[in-house]
Write a structure and sequence with these properties.
Blueprint: H1 3-13, E1 22-29, E2 34-40, E3 52-56
Antiparallel strand pairs: 1-2, 2-3
Length: 79
């Protein structure tokens, strides 16, 4: 596989989104010298680090920084 084909395959692997997660925090690992996001998965507290995992920040791994959704909840008066 050429470098260009590999890059295209990597970009496409996260385009077929079939799962949602929530970014709940961020940090810096001094040992690894790496910034990271703390992400909550929907699998529950028995998975990963009490239901959370870390992913490199600033690298857009799996499209986490480019393919996201932000929502503002507006409560309507029910009267």
């Amino acid at each position: 596989m050429t470098n260009n084909n590999w890059a295209n395959a990597y970009k496409l692997q996260w385009l077929a989104i079939d799962h949602a997660v929530l970014i709940i925090g961020y940090g810096y690992d001094k040992k690894l010298k790496m910034k990271y996001w703390v992400i909550r998965n929907s699998y529950g507290p028995g998975w990963g680090e009490k239901g959370n995992f870390k992913i490199r920040r600033g690298m857009n791994d799996f499209g986490v920084e480019s393919d996201n959704l932000i929502a503002d909840v507006i409560l309507l008066d029910q009267k």
